[in-house]
Amino acid sequence: MIEQLNIPLIDADKLAREVVEPGKPAYKQIVKKFSRDILLEDGTIDRVKLANIIFTDETKRKILNKCTHPYIQRAILKSLCWHWVKGERVTVLDVPLLIESGLYKYMSAVIVIYCDPRYPRSSENLQLGRLMRRDGISEHAARQRMAAQIPLKEKVSFADYIIDNSGEFEETERQVFQIMNKVQPKWWNWLLTWLGPPALATAALVTAAQSNGL
Question: What b/e string do you get for 106-126 counting C-beta neighbours within 10 Å, with b at 16 or more?
């Protein structure tokens, strides 16, 4: 849906996979902390084996987060800067752990997709099915991962906008388009925002030059 509106989408899950590719800093830290036992024959990280370790041990999960989160956040910032340089008015950031990581504090708007728990397609069931299909894991393993996150019903309290995904696809699509229209800044507001960082950087350089007598 977001692509239909020609709005850039940053997928944090995709970035998380990229930062742990062999040879990258996060990969080296993970191997150092968890040993080469968590590697497959081709040298890549065995995501299932590592998940089985961290989702049954909170301490080890925190260790993994320290190895990966700085690099994921850096990759997100890099992507955001690139879209800003291109002059994009809005960029959507898809982050499963947006609230848990604290990144929500830096968003201009937080959107939570939620389903009424009275419906068979409840948020929990959708999330459970998505995890099982994406990672090829059992229901038990998927529930372990979900237990490590803030429940969606609590995440709703952090939201500026809520998309109710209980109904038909067309209704969900209507809500998405409506919210995207609301978060689009006016052209003059966008221009001020876009020009702000370069103006501040220029002012800082001029001040520094003047203080050095240049």
Answer: eeeebbbbbbeeeeeebbeeb
Report the C-alpha gap between 7 and 180 in whole angstroms.
9
Token readout for 11 is 């997928």
Distances (CA, A) of 210 to 196, 200, 203, 204: 21, 15, 11, 10
pLDDT in the model for residue 23: 94
**Which two structure tokens, joined as six digits, stand for 179?**
């919210």
- Say how many C-beta atoms besides its own lie within 10 A of residue 183's C-beta: 15
CA 19 from centre of chain: 13
Measure the CA–CA gap between 127 and 111, rounded to whole angstroms. 16
- In one letter, which amino acid is 184? Q
41 is written with which tokens? 């024959």
d(CA 13, CA 11): 5
Tokens of 113: 């997709």
Token pair of 34 as six digits: 């968890």
Is pTM beyond 0.85 here?
no
Sign of CA pseudo-dihedral 163, 169, 175, 178: positive
Q: What is the mean pLDDT of residues 149-163?
A: 87
Q: Does residue 8 surpass a pLDDT of 80?
A: yes
Q: Which residues contact 144 (CB under 8 A, 6 or more apart)?
A: 55, 56
Radius of gyration of the chain, Cα coordinates, nearest whole angstrom:
21
